[in-house]
Amino acid sequence: VRDTSGRIIDFEYRSFNRMAEEITGRKAADVVGRRMLELFPGIAASGVFDRWVELVETGVPVRFQDRYQ
Description:
The protein is mainly α. It is built from five helices and no strands.
């Protein structure tokens, strides 16, 4: 999702696999079609959102680990 200047401001889930369901405790039916920051607002402060933006903007694969509680 981009703003009027073309800057990425969010992501919309188009799919959500079983592993993502297990990690987040959310079902795909409750996630697909919704926005990342709406569902997981803490992702911006953790820096994970910026890594996703970097991937989209550069096309260069990004590797990282993050803890989920």
